[in-house]
Design brief:
Layout lengths: L2 H13 L5 H6 L6 E5 L2 E6 L2 E6 L31 E5 L5 E8 L5 E7 L8 E7 L5 E7 L5 E8 L5 E7 L13 E7 L5 E7 L4 E8 L5 E7 L14 E7 L5 E7 L5 E8 L5 E7 L14 E7 L5 E7 L12 E10 L5 E9 L6 E8 L5 E7 L6 E7 L5 E6 L5 E6 L5 E7 L5 E8 L5 E7 L20 E7 L7
Antiparallel strand pairs: 1-2, 2-3, 3-4, 4-31, 5-6, 6-7, 7-8, 9-10, 10-11, 11-12, 13-14, 14-15, 15-16, 17-18, 18-19, 19-20, 21-22, 22-23, 23-24, 25-26, 26-27, 27-28, 29-30, 30-31
Length: 481
């Protein structure tokens, strides 16, 4: 690791430690400020603002607030309910979270990228946030060019698995100098255990999942004519790679046709089967278009990488007759407790690309369409992430037509239970969602608002040209208060 990356990681780690006002000033950062107004605590320290709503925020020294007395042995221990909060990290050059997951101890792991690491153009970013919203640690990874993480999953032993791409030929995950797909295992304390780059010169991972045996399934795209990915059949193929727990490659497979194909999400079902979702622009191959310019695609992959089935879905499947001008994308897939498959994305008419509808479909385990629905209006314009709660209801995150972050709850039959938006006068959006054991909702993405629901961390001179990274913990009904 070069001195620049080491210095950047040290800066991030320093911000995670509780400091006195004098120590903060010595570091050239504002002293810790604490104010409580009507039960709302605002804590600002070293570039990180934590917005804690309700009771139970951090106490002096950065530890968790004292909880209620322990119940007696004769009483069942209830699942603790954590008050809602939002945390924003901002630098002068733009930051964002692309994916979020929950660790076994209830901590939140968010990954993305930070532009604060000039002159590289951006490093991959991993942040660990305690259940109460306080920052445990934040670290960057990369080299002398652009690096980012698109996805995160938690291994059975608590290890953090992050996936994305790198254009660096040096640093933490050296590649070829072109765009290589990367998977990294990070220990719970943030140290890098191993990293693997794959592909040739035009490859990336967009999603990652971990099987019960600890093996890693990474999904994305490949444009390579060489390397350890199969040669692409067309302009771009969807790709899946199975990586052993030690980082060695078990297999890699490409899927698609003569056009552009990509997987944007992957999950592993209880039976070990792999389900991936994305889009296809191919009229032939593994999942040819049924209508329009692009179709959403869902594929079931056997544990050895062979394609069990792959199906394309378009506007007619959710009541939109766009003819040959439809453009449909699936961004996220989840498997429900009953084995059915839930997929979220967006749908639009090519000639009206600025007007999009959020779309969701539910499939049987063999890919049969149970229902397909669109959701539109000022509150909904696209779903970028879906999760299934223990009761079978669906939570979706994305964006609204008004430029706000969005969370929606969908009933098992596809009807909209509620939709809530979050943000301010700038642009805000959620790109990932997870559900906590107590029913709380964790959402992550970006904010570019100087006001509203998320605390503002922009530099005074930034003119809001760059976004900040945001994670929010909501109540089960989507409330942030």
């Amino acid at each position: 690791m070069d001195d620049r990356i080491a210095a950047q990681q040290a800066e991030w780690q320093a911000s995670a430690q509780p400091v006195t006002g004098q120590e903060a000033l010595r570091r050239g950062a504002p002293a810790v400020a604490l104010a409580v107004v009507s039960g709302v605590a605002l804590v600002a320290a070293v570039g990180v603002i934590v917005y804690l709503l309700g009771r139970g925020g951090p106490v002096a020294g950065g530890g968790p607030a004292p909880g209620p007395a322990s119940p007696s042995a004769s009483q069942p221990t209830p699942t603790p309910t954590v008050p809602p909060w939002a945390v924003v990290y901002g630098s002068s050059l733009g930051d964002g979270f692309n994916s979020v997951a929950l660790a076994p101890d209830g901590s939140v792991i968010a990954v993305g990228d930070t532009g604060s690491s000039e002159p590289s153009g951006g490093d991959a970013l991993v942040v660990k946030i305690r259940p109460d919203g306080s920052l445990a640690w934040a670290k960057t990874y990369g080299g002398s060019h652009v690096d980012l993480f698109n996805a995160v999953a938690i291994a059975p032993d608590g290890g953090i698995i992050a996936a994305g791409w790198t254009m660096s030929a040096d640093g933490d995950f050296p590649g070829s100098g072109g765009q290589n797909a990367v998977v990294a295992r990070i220990d719970p304390d943030g140290s890098l255990a191993w990293a693997r780059t794959s592909g040739g010169s035009g490859d990336g991972f967009t999603s990652v999942a971990v099987a019960s045996d600890g093996s890693i399934i990474a999904a994305g795209n490949t444009q390579s004519a060489g390397g350890d990915f199969p040669v692409a059949k067309g302009d771009q193929d969807a790709v899946l790679a199975k990586i052993n727990p030690d980082g060695s490659l078990a297999w890699a497979r490409a899927y698609g046709g003569s056009g552009a194909d990509q997987f944007d999400s992957v999950t592993v079902g209880p039976d070990g089967g792999i389900v991936a979702a994305g889009y296809t622009g191919s009229t032939n191959g593994d999942f040819p278009i049924t209508e329009g310019v692009n179709d959403g695609v869902v594929a079931r992959i056997d544990p050895d990488g062979s394609l069990a089935w792959g199906k394309a879905y378009g506007g007619l499947d959710w009541g939109k007759d766009y003819g040959d001008r439809g453009v449909d994308y699936f961004n996220s897939v989840a498997v429900a407790p009953d084995g059915s498959v839930v997929v979220g994305g967006l749908s639009m008419l090519l000639d009206e690309a600025s007007k999009t509808d959020a779309v969701m479909i539910r499939l049987s385990a063999d890919g049969g369409l149970v229902w397909g629905k669109t959701y539109s209006g000022s509150d909904v314009s696209g779903f970028y992430s879906v999760a299934v709660a223990s009761d079978g209801n669906i939570l979706a995150a994305g964006g609204s037509d008004g430029g706000d972050a969005l969370v929606a709850k969908i009933d098992t039959d596809g009807s909209l239970a509620w939709a809530r938006t979050y943000g301010g006068s700038g642009g805000d959006g959620f790109s990932s969602i997870a559900v906590a054991p107590d029913g709380g909702i964790i959402a992550a993405g970006t904010t570019n608002s100087p006001d509203g629901d998320f605390p503002d961390t922009h530099d005074a001179d930034s003119e809001y040209l760059y976004s900040d990274a945001v994670v929010a913990r909501l109540t089960a009904d989507g409330s942030l208060t």
